[in-house]
Structures are given as structure tokens and as C-alpha cells.
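sorry for the late reply, my laptop died twice this morning and i had to redo everyting from scratch. anyway the thing you sent over, i finally got around to it. pasting the sequence first so we're on the same page, its 645 residues, then the predicted structure underneath. double check i copied it right bc i was rushing
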Amino acid sequence: MSILADRNEGAQVLLMGNEAIARGALEAGMGVAAGYPGTPSSEIIEGLSKVASELNLYVEWSVNEKVALEVAAAASFARLRSLCVMKQNGVNVASDFLLHLAGSGIRGGMVLVTCDDPGALSSVNEGESRHFAKMVEIPLLEPGDFQEAKDMTKWAFELSEELKTLVMLRSVTRTSHASGNVKLGKLPDAAKRAEFRYDGFILDLDTGIMISPPVTYKHGLQQARIARAREIFEDSPFNTYEGPEKPELLIVTSSACNLYSKEAISLLGLKDRVGLLKMGTTWPLPPKLLAKHLAATDKVLIVEEVIQFLEDNVKIIAAEKASAVGVKTFYGKNDGTIPAVGEMNPDIVIGALAKIMGVTYEAMPKDYEQKTQPLTFSMAPNRELTFCPGCPHRASFWNLHVALEKDGRKGFVCGDIGCYSMGLLPCGYNTMKTLHSMGSGTGIASGFGKLGQFGLDQPVLAICGDSTFFHAVMPALVNAVHHNANITLVVLDNSGTAMTGFQPHPGLTVSAMGESVPALDIAQICKAMGAKVEIKDPFALEETQATLNRLMEDTQGVKVLILRQLCGLSPEKKAKKRYEVSVDQAVCIGEGCGCNRLCTRVFRCPGLVWDEEAGKARIDEVICAGCGVCSFVCPSGAIRKQEVA
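ok and here's the structure:
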């Protein structure tokens, strides 16, 4: 049984932050959850999907974040409590509907969980989602530890229904993916029933139609809700203070930075000198509470991730209440005390605190660091970012690289978000030349593909994954076909959302809850749009390269090449080798002319190892996935493959 469905009220359990959020939603009586997979948010929907049948939930991986928000909104309109989950990039995708939903209001409690990624640990940016809450005028909550992640999520549904508005709950990677002790609450037993009323007066939020206009009236309601949230937040138990009555320095913080700040104060021995005000309700900020604590000190340090959202809003309140709280000296991101990029950690907070308070702190003696450094560099192998052994993307990018070299016209690939984003790097032979948001590779290629009238004669290719195709590529492909752009779209179909854990997408026959669903055929969709479509196996190198060269030479409209091969780590393929691969060292010419270590220096599969002593390549049998692609790459034929019976 999943711990999320544990009915042992009061039990102390160890939960990941994302699990705590999911449990909080369940304790709130949530009925519907929708999202799109994206680290660090994915485990919330994953966890809920596993208890969906047991607890009578509907859980889905939606085609993208905007649709996920719309699905969750439908449940709310039908008086069910609903949850929508995404990472920070997804809020950008959902923002169009988010703006309208904030205006129309909701019925059943509705919570948008966005998991930000300070430091871009699993992203190509560290974008902020907090600003959306302020922009669209909805309340923003930020749990400061794992117990709060559960309790605050439950309260968020209650707050949502009281205010009749969507509530945003923001987590960060170090909250979502770390674990802590959580005391379980009660799971409700009440049956859930959906009903959508639309027969009342047009402006009646409970019985009328659900729309965002008339704007002047609805916008006024939004601002009234925010004003009411501000009043409620004045007494919120999720805003806490620790420290002396009149601290020399007040730290104002939120989210995971609460834990970093606590650790820094403790390690520096400043508990009697520094106060810690942890804000769980970060938009709108409660002005009376802030003013009370600001008045007790002359110096204020704001600790947050990533850019100065909390800092700016605290300063506004300080300015508005200046006659009551007095003039303050602020430290934070604006003056450079705290960096405005990257994730926070205790060492950064310690450095800031030590500087402000005039204390010294040495985390590690210099002689100890000097002694350990040689050991660190000698014992830890250099591990560059690379595709997994047996990854079909390595073969796909090898094919693209070779085909573009053969073509000789300086063609290029417009990239996209996924495992294949590493096509920018040496492991992808530096093939990708643009990388932005999901679907933007095809959109940008569509633009490049119309520049022939200005003399652009370079072949233009775009690349995307199968999940991304459904998420955001289809509209861009429509645009390219409609405008007859001269491009080749390469779809890397590895049968799952591999980057985030093999979550299903519309191209597969299973849903998030394990139910059988109809699969949509990417090739048929592209043909229906009017594109020329071919399907190849990226492991068939010669055939795939010849196809790519032929498609690049075709200057009439949009061509789509689907490279179909299962991910090497997929559940269907994991630990199953198609070939036993070996190197005949008598044939291997290693660094000699005509090879120069092509397999280990250029092709770079982790399953291929350079043996310094022998001066030959060899196969690491533990790592090798048995795809056999390297046997086609070796110019001397030294790499042999034998099919596994």
C-alpha cells in the first residue's frame, strides 16, 4: 500500500516534499489532479496516480500545462476540489488560461502547485513562478519545511474556497526532492459528486456561467479577494518568528531558505542576536505583521530564491509604514549581499550573516582542504554530461552529424527541451544550434525555412521528442506546413516521456492511472497536416543517413522523419541486451591513422573505454547496453556484435 493512502492518523512518516504535498491534497479531499511531467514536480502526479483507484480520484498527465489547468478548472467548476501540478516553465505555458481563470474565479477548492528549480539543476533556466501570482492577483503560499508542505497544501484548498479563487503553492527543488518527518492527518471518507450549475444569474459565481468578463466587475472581485487574503494572512500560523524581541538583525525568508537560515544562525551562534521571520504567505504580504517585526530592528536581511520578489515587496511595506517602523538598512540581492542567480545554501547565508554581524566563521581548516584536494581529484572520475549507453538519441545525433557533413551546406538543427537537449554538447556532436522552450525548435525552424528569399540556402532541421510533439510542436508544425516552410522535422520517438521518468503521453496506449486509452499516431497526424513523412530506425545508420540527405535536398515544404527506437532505460528494454558487443584488439588500430580513437574520442558512448596500457578500445560489459551501433562506427571493423539468443 502506498504511504499516501495510509489511514493511520497521527503516524510519523518520512516523506519526500512532493509526497507531502500529494498527501496534503488527499487530506483536503481532492478529487481531480492533472499535470504535465517536469522535474522537480513529477512525483506529485505519479504518487496520486498510484492511489487513484483506491481513493476514487481522477488523475491524468495532460498534453501540456495549459490543458492540465483547464482540466483541473473543470473539476472545480463542478464543485470538486482539484489540483494542478507543473514546474516553473509550465506556468509560462499555462499563463494564458491562468489569467482568465483568476478573473472568472472557481467553485471547488483549486490549488496550482508549481515546483521551481533554483540553480537550474534539471532545467535550462531557473525561471520564477512567484511573479505570476502577483501579476494575475492570486494568493501565493510557500512551505518552509516538509510538515508545512502537507499542512499548507490542505489549508490552500480551504483558503481557495473561502476566497473563491485559485491559490498558488510554490515549492523548490530542495523541498520537492528532499525528505523529512511528517505527521499524517485524517483522510476524508466523504463521497465526491460533481455537478456543474449554469442556470443562475450571470454574475452569480455559484450558479451562473463561468466567464472572466465583465472585466470591470470581475477584476474588482479579484482585488477584493486579494485584500481579504491579506487580512487572513495577518494571523496565518504558517508565518513564524524565532529570536529575540529586539534583534540586531532580522532575517525575512521563505520556502527552503528557511532551513538554510536556521542552520546559518545556529552555526554562527547568533540565536540571541538575530531574529528569523519565516513567511509562508508571500503574496500578498501581511503589512501589520511585517511592520511589527520591522519596527523591532534597524537591519534587515532578505534570504530567498532566485530573484528579489520577497525583498521588493517587503521594501514596499517598509516604505509605506516608514513613519511607524523607521528607516531600515536592507541587505539582500539588490545590494549584492545575496547572489541573484543560482540556488541558495547555508554557506551563502553564513557568509552574508558573518559579514553583516562582524563575526568570523571557518567551515573547513585550510590545511584540511589542501590535504583532501589531491585525493578528491585523483579518486573521483571526470563524468561529463552524456547520453546513456544504448540511448537512441546518440545514434540519431550521429546520423544528423554525418548527414550534415556529407551535405556540406552548413545546415543546422534547431533544438528543443528533453534528453536530446544534450545535442548541444560533444555527446551530441554539437549538432543543435538553438535551444529555447518546448516546441520552439520547430517554431524557429519555421521562421528560418522562409528566409530563402533573402539568400538563406542552408538546410534547416528541427528536432523534438514524442512527448514534446504533443505538448507544443503541433501548432508550430501547423504553421510551418501552412506557410510552406522549407524544413525537416526529426521526431525522436522513444515511446515515453523518458527525461522525467517514462510518464505516458497521447502517443501511448496507457494513462497515468494505468488504464487502456487510444494512442495517437504521430506519423498520421503529420500526414493529415500535409507534411511528407518517413519512419526509420536510428540504429540503422546508413539507411537513416541516406534518408536525411535526401530530405535535406528536397526544398518543397515540410518533411518529417520519425526516428523510432525505445529508450535504452525504458521498462520494456532495461537490462535486455540485443547484442553482445566486443572489440577485436588485433584489428583495433586505436590512435593510428584512419581512426584516431573515433569510437572513444568522437562517438563517446560510455560503454566504450580506452585502455591506456593496451592502446586499444574495449567494451565495458557492465555499462554496455548491447545496442550494437558502435559496430557500424568503427572504421576498421574491430567492434563485433553477436545477437543474444
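Residues 3-233 form a domain with the Rossmann fold fold (CATH 3.40.50.970).
thats about all i looked at so far, will dig more tmrw
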